[in-house]
Specification:
By secondary structure, the protein is an alpha+beta fold. 34% of the residues lie in helices and 20% in strands. The chain has a ten-stranded antiparallel sheet. The longest helix has 17 residues.
Length: 402
């Protein structure tokens, strides 16, 4: 997850010569704290903070924004996003171009200073990997998506028209990016007008109206004909309409009413004989930490979880202790949620670590809120264990609206 932002932290962590280059690029060459006389990295903090405090609001905000962006990506995950973005931008030697003596913060700032387009692309990639609770459906064809400007422009117009019924969506912009077999379409429609209290350039407190954009993301996997939708603030009926719009405009496919099979199946996980087997070569072990159960005739959910302090505890032992089988046999309980802990052991330069994911029946999972190098392995096992029910569907034969 993105760390809390603090200007003082960024100024302490980024090498002074890169801070000087940042200030030069942003038009602050007049700031001279006697750079050559700064013997410690922290010597710059107070002079630069004092200088920024005297700047007009617009210039202060521009510097803070740059420092905030660097802070967001100054991590191992952020660097991975930068290197992936460089490949998209046709820069194959980014890693070797960055000076070897720079730390993670310095490397991130170096890319911001020298390859702004790469940095901006990396921000999108990093954002994708940290979005959670996508809505997934598997009933789409394996069509080649229409990525023409005409198609993306039409998708933007259709989304605007749909959201105008709510009084928002006057303008909408759609951008796209490909990662392997997954095509991402980012839609940014206008949201409702909001007002905030803020100080203007004269330091007078004012009430200022503004209209931010919503964020809607379509993630279409052509290999298995699945679509995941991120539209966190929209009600269910709008999500269904957005999915139909995407299928029609981008895939030229008439999507059926939202009554597909579940994207995830969890009931078999309650069976004590079911084993989460993994390949020895992957060097990963998996443990069920938590299961959520529901019973026919009630909307209540019962959560059963292991005692993490006891290494010999397991979920099936916990089930026996928590559920009353004399009144309701295990067969009558449906699993509606599972929390899985993947432990990645060191292998071929991969650092050891743990990754916890949560899957909710029938169509929700927080898998994308993970490091990209772990997602591929986790997806592999979700499909092998029949938790992820992604299936192949024949491509459309005729276009919609032709």
């Amino acid at each position: 997850m993105t760390r809390p932002f603090a200007i003082h932290t960024v100024l302490r962590m980024v090498p002074n010569h890169l801070l000087k280059e940042l200030l030069d690029q942003e038009g602050h060459r007049e700031f001279d704290p006697k750079w050559n006389g700064l013997t410690r990295p922290t010597d710059i903090v107070q002079p630069l903070i004092a200088y920024m405090d005297e700047l007009p609001k617009s210039k202060f905000d521009a510097l803070e924004c740059a420092l905030h962006n660097v802070s967001d990506l100054a991590s191992e995950e952020g660097l991975n996003a930068l290197f992936e973005a460089a490949q998209f931008c046709g820069i194959d030697d980014l890693a070797s171009s960055i000076p070897d003596d720079l730390c993670t913060w310095g490397r991130t700032m170096w890319v911001w200073l020298n390859h702004r387009s790469v940095f901006e692309k990396a921000q999108i990639i990093y954002q994708i990997d940290h979005m959670s609770w996508w809505r997934k459906r598997n009933d789409l064809p394996q069509n080649t998506p229409d990525v023409s400007s005409a198609a993306t422009d039409r998708l933007a117009r259709e989304i605007s028209t749909l959201l105008r019924t709510q009084g928002r969506g006057r303008n909408c912009t759609v951008e796209r990016i490909e990662r392997g077999s997954i095509h991402y379409f980012f839609a940014y429609p206008d949201d409702f007008v909001q007002t905030v209290q803020m100080h203007n350039e004269e330091s007078v407190l004012t009430v200022t109206p503004f209209r931010k954009t919503l964020q809607i993301v379509f993630a279409y996997n052509q290999e298995d004909g699945s679509l995941e939708l991120y539209a966190r603030s929209l009600p269910k009926k709008f999500k269904e309409q957005l999915e139909r719009l995407f299928a029609s405009v981008i895939l030229h496919w008439g999507l059926s009413e939202f009554d597909p099979d579940a994207a995830y199946e969890l009931n078999h996980l309650k069976d004590p004989s079911f084993v989460l087997r993994t390949d020895p070569a992957d060097r990963v072990t998996v443990r069920i930490k938590r299961l959520g159960f529901s019973h026919e005739g009630t909307d209540r959910q019962i959560i059963v979880q292991v005692d993490e302090d006891k290494t010999d505890d397991d979920i099936h032992k916990a089930i026996k202790e928590c559920l009353n089988f004399s009144e309701h046999p295990l067969a009558n309980w449906d699993v509606t949620l599972v929390t899985l802990c993947f432990e990645f052991h060191a292998i071929d330069g991969r650092k050891p670590g743990r990754q916890t994911i949560e899957v909710r029946y029938p169509r929700s999972c927080n898998l994308r809120n993970m490091r990209a190098d772990r997602v591929e392995i986790i997806q592999k096992y979700l499909k092998r264990w029949k938790i992820d029910l992604a299936k192949q569907i024949e491509s459309a034969i005729c276009a919609v609206g032709a």
